Predict the structure.
Amino acid sequence: VRYISATWPLHFNVICQLAAGTCEIVTLDRDSSQPRRTIARQTARCACKKGQIAGTTRARPACVDARIIKTKQWCEMLPCLEGEGCDLLINKSGWTCTQPGGRIKTTTVS
């Protein structure tokens, strides 16, 4: 749903509301200064339904069951791409996605 508001002198502001149960990426920063390593920081805005919270599904922001976040069972929200394996980090601070070729992507939650 999109709303447009106008003020005098005519300045138009477009105010976008997200549909319930959806998310959008607000910021995405990548740091490739270290060899063989890219650090990405992403901020998303979500409009989750009752009992849901912002999370990650198939490497995209998504609304997921709040229980998954509370219990830190990250792999239950299916954060990896199809064909990748998901494993919890030993201290439950995040997860790894392992591609069939052996490349590993690590995600930590802060």
